[in-house]
Amino acid sequence: MRPQLALAALVICGCAHAPRSISPAARAPAAAVEPAATRPIFELASLGLQVRVPGPVELIERDYRASDGPVHTQGVGCTVDSQLFFVARHFRAGRDRARDDALLQSSKSALKTVSREASVEQGEWAGIELEGSDEKGHAVWRRTYAVGDGFWMAQVQRSEGKLDRALARAFFDSIVLSQPWSVHAFPEGHFSALMPDGGVLLGKKFLHAENYTVAELSWLGGSQARAFGVWALPLEGTATADERMDGAAEQLVSDGNRIIWQAPVVVDTDSGRDFLTQKNDNWTRIRAIVSGTDLYMLQAVARTKEALLDESVTRFLASFRRY
């Protein structure tokens, strides 16, 4: 779970906080049930969510406070034939969290009884599937996935009687989750970059980079233990861009990295170099850019070389803009 970064160590720790069930603020009237195959796919691109819901969609957005700080929740839900359906992501403001297994096991705490438990996956993210009943005796079927600083939760519950299992399974199986990204500005470094939303955020102190103008890493986790970082450092001396890149390569090797390849790159009018490195069980892509006054770096880390060929890594490295 803890990749060895080319520029800094990444450590995830902390205590698990039990996921809380949520529901739409106001339940819609019962609606006629459409066959699963004919229902349209609802997409919320800003959240990275696609799902087929069996009734009129209600947007969910609310805030609550966990024992260690605020949580922001976004998703969708609906009510059909006394069954409540919802899927939502819980963002924990970039705070550290427990390991995946501990976080997922904490999902049980909101249920009074658990009649079935199974491991599930959604892409690179590990999850847990639970069936049982809540404190009010309502039948509950839930899937929870650990991602970034928090988790996704999808749930079907019914206040009376048994769940419509065919309808519930069609809902669960229609869910496709992807990682949302947005442009993040770093005014202290006068640049912006496309960054993943909802990651565990690690700053200068943790990264031992107090002398940097900007040092921030966003850890997403999952089977690839992905992380994306941005760095800015004021330059000293009169070395050329090539000399500085040669120095960076020497430092990478000195830190125990194996440089697989490196190639020159030009961003606007600034020169730099791209690196692919390997250290222990982790692979890293680094784009270093030298301006007249600063050194900028963008860093993507994953468990495998193939994961760094993902189009999100290409977009991330190409997203750097100075202003």
Please give a structural write-up.
With 323 residues, the chain is mainly β. The protein has helices at 100-105, 165-174, 204-207, 241-254, 311-318, and strands at residues 42-44, 49-51, 58-66, 69-80, 83-91, 113-122, 125-133, 139-147, 150-158, 176-177, 181-186, 191-196, 200-202, 214-221, 226-234, 258-267, 270-279, 282-290, 294-302, 321-322. It folds into two domains: 36-177, Protein Transport Mog1p, Chain A (3-Layer(aba) Sandwich), CATH 3.40.1000; 181-322, Mog1/PsbP, alpha/beta/alpha sandwich (Protein Transport Mog1p, Chain A), CATH 3.40.1000. It has five helices and 20 strands. It has a seven-stranded antiparallel β-sheet with strand order 3-4-5-9-8-7-6. Strands 13-14-15-19-18-17-16 form a seven-stranded antiparallel β-sheet, sandwiched between helices. Strands 1-2-10 form a three-stranded antiparallel β-sheet. The longest helix has 14 residues, at 241-254. The two termini are 36 Å apart.
